[in-house]
Design brief:
The chain has 685 residues and is mainly alpha-helical. The chain has 29 helices and 8 strands. The strands form 3 sheets. The protein has a 4-stranded mixed sheet. A two-stranded antiparallel ribbon has the order 1-8. The C terminus is likely disordered.
Length: 685
């Protein structure tokens, strides 16, 4: 059957979808949650799977550090030998006592303490009122009020030495090059004590025991909550690493999980929907649908906490329902939900919401034929989402404390976006050549320009098309075929007759132009209404599925009337059937097969001399059995039981159309006025 692809094409399609999905699946190092300090916790209640230490929050850490910076007392060391070194370096003096006197003055000042200039500046600004002195591993505090800098020492001596000889010696000693601080800041020891004090002040404040709540759903994330969540995620990542979590094995598991789901979907099509399995375009559409909406959900979840719930997943069952059927819509949505569940933190909540919404979608939209139905469906989806969310929250928490309007807004937005399926339907029709019920209903409108032209220029053909449409629609309904498609296709199947209306019996009123033409020429004119119809369809922009009715309604059959006439005139000759044969192809779907049967039977039924059940039954059996015997339905997926139902439907429909009527008796004695008031053309059933 044309349109079937090899099994390898299907395997490659499923494999490509699997690779794309797994590529965007979460990895061990990926964040489990998306949250912000000061915003609500949008996930369900988070329970500690192990003991979690309660570290101080960031605000506390900042406060502690600021406080410690303000009150920390730095540690200094005393160089007791420095003054001896400075005195020893004083120059010799005459008299010698000058050197001793200056040395004594220096010892007095250095006993009070000499520090570097930066320390002196801190003391002067009031920031350093005391220091800690480390001597023999013992810390002792001392005030800084008596500390001087080397510069202060020099100036003090310069201003306080009254003896001129001693002052001259002081100047000669060049002390500015000898003076050094004897109290020196010990940065290493100060840093060690600072860190010790900081760690003491920022020690853990307790433990969240396994099984306790880390944070409730809907709770505003405080600074402490934020720290607890970060601690939880860090410990989880550490545990994964310490347990030698193998990322390769995780990817293998993800491939297996996604692959099983996609394979299950392929098997479902193989066993229950062969029309999709044997149509590669249909398979491509459905697998693309799953991948695209998975990527949409992952993308939204990346940028927003719980963004997965904004993704309008219910567009998927709507599109599948419109182009295929409700059972397939539910199955495909189930597979998509399970695929997306691998990305969610709380799969139960997500799966329940998607299941309820999908069931509501399919139930409320059994057949989309009006735009307003999508708005109704969007409302039903919103109600089902919110109801499922509310009941699940009550079941999990036993109260409304975890209920958040933030989630309700997400779900309502999701439902509202579902209505965009109407726009996507037309995009899918253009890209994949599918046909929605909405488009078929629009095409079947007899106010369509092409049908209006057929009604005006070929009234007989138009009436024939209407009759065939009704006959074929009933048959399609009886076997579960696409009724709207058959109805629309039947209306357009003979539009090629617009090119030569007078050459077709139903449009003739008087002379038959075929009487003046040879049979082979007449056959070519009649047969050409197929190619003419396809040209008109191209100009009108009719979809391919409608063109298939024009192309296949005669299949590779023959214009038998003209072939028989030609054969009668050329008896005994070998006759070439090609000029009398339609170009085909034969019907390749149940719908076009039904159309071919209905077309032949409706035309032939007009020539019956009597319309009894026996005559109609004989006509229906003869035409349909003849087509089957000629192999015209070999490429169709019709089954024998379908053919039996179609025959019975045709017979019932024709009996209804050609039922006998009871004539009203004429009463000669009836007054003329009374006769005039008698309803004309009425019938008793």
């Amino acid at each position: 059957m044309k349109g079937k692809k090899s099994i390898w094409d299907k395997i490659l399609l499923a494999l490509a979808a699997c690779v794309v999905i797994v590529y965007f699946y979460p990895h061990p190092e990926a964040n489990r949650f998306i949250y912000e300090e000061g915003r609500p916790w949008n996930y369900t209640k988070l329970i500690a799977p192990f003991d979690i230490p309660i570290h101080p929050d960031s605000a506390t850490l900042i406060t502690v550090r600021d406080s410690l910076d303000a009150r920390f007392v730095p540690i200094y060391g005393l160089n007791q030998l420095l003054i001896d070194t400075i005195v020893a370096r004083l120059p010799e003096s005459k008299p010698a006592k000058l050197r001793n006197e200056l040395g004594n003055e220096l010892r007095k000042i250095y006993a009070a303490g000499v520090v570097d200039m930066s320390t002196k500046d801190e003391i002067a600004s009031g920031r350093l009122k005391k220091v800690r002195l480390l001597e023999k591993n013992i810390l002792s505090e001392m005030p800084t009020s008596s500390f001087n800098s080397p510069r202060d020492v020099y100036l003090q001596l310069d201003s306080t030495i009254a003896d001129s000889a001693l002052h001259q010696y002081f100047v000669k000693a060049n002390l500015q090059n000898l003076l050094r601080p004897n109290y020196i800041r010990d940065d290493e020891e100060s840093h060690r004590h600072y860190q010790y004090d900081y760690l003491t002040l920022t020690a853990d404040r307790g433990i969240i025991l396994q099984g306790q709540t880390i944070i409730d759903k809907g709770a505003i994330i405080s600074s402490q909550d934020y720290t607890n969540l970060k601690t939880y995620e860090g410990m989880l990542a550490q545990m994964n690493t310490s347990q030698n979590q193998n990322s390769v094995l995780m990817v293998i598991g993800q491939v297996g999980y996604v692959g099983l789901l996609l394979a299950a979907m392929m098997l479902y099509f193989f066993f229950f929907v062969p029309a999709i399995y044997n149509n590669f375009r249909a398979l491509l559409f459905i697998y693309l649908l799953v991948v695209v909406f998975f990527l949409l959900a992952v993308g939204l979840n990346y940028f927003y906490a719980n963004g997965l719930y904004i993704a309008p997943m219910m567009i998927v069952p709507i599109l599948v329902l419109v182009f295929f059927d409700g059972r397939t819509a539910l199955f495909v949505t189930g597979v998509l939900s399970l695929v997306c569940a691998g990305v969610t933190t709380f799969a139960l909540e997500f799966l329940l919401l998607q299941f309820c919404a999908a069931a509501a979608t399919v139930f409320s939209l059994r057949e989309l034929s009006r735009r307003s139905q999508l708005l109704r469906t969007a409302f039903v989806v919103a109600v089902s989402y919110i109801a499922a969310y509310t009941f699940l929250d009550l079941m999990m928490n036993g109260s409304f404390e975890g209920f958040t309007w933030h989630m309700v807004v997400f779900l309502a937005t999701n439902a509202l976006l579902t209505s965009t399926a109407y726009i996507l339907m037309f995009a899918v029709e253009r890209l994949f050549g599918f046909m929605s019920v909405v488009t078929l209903v629009e095409l079947a409108d007899i106010n369509n320009p092409l049908l209006m032209r057929l009604s005006s220029e070929c009234p007989g053909t138009f009436q024939h098309a209407i009759a065939v449409s009704n006959l074929a629609s009933d048959a399609a309904m009886s076997i579960g075929a696409n009724v709207q498609l058959v109805r629309a296709g039947a209306l357009y199947h003979d539009i090629g007759k617009l090119c030569n209306p007078a050459f077709f019996t139903e449009n003739q009123h008087g002379a038959n132009p075929h009487d003046a033409l040879p049979s082979e020429r007449s056959a070519q004119i009649v047969i050409s209404h197929v190619s003419d119809g396809l040209q008109l369809a191209d100009k009108a922009g009719l979809p391919e599925v409608i063109k298939s009715f024009i192309r296949e309604h005669h299949g590779a059959g023959m214009a038998k009337y003209f072939f028989i006439k030609y054969s009668e005139k050329h008896q005994g000759e070998e006759i070439d059937k090609t000029p009398f044969t339609y170009p085909g192809p034969n019907p390749r779907s149940r719908e076009t097969s039904i159309m071919m049967m209905a077309d032949s039977i409706e035309a032939a039924s007009r020539s019956l001399k009597e319309h009894t059940r026996e005559a109609i039954t004989e006509l229906v059996n003869r035409i349909i059995d003849g087509q089957i015997a000629d192999g015209l339905h070999n490429e169709s997926s019709l089954e024998f039981r379908d053919v039996s139902k179609i025959k019975e439907t045709f017979i019932k429909r024709l009996m209804t159309i050609y039922h006998s009527r009871i004539a009203y008796p004429v009463q000669n004695s009836t007054p003329r006025a009374a006769q005039a008031s008698q309803p004309q053309g009425s019938a008793a059933q």
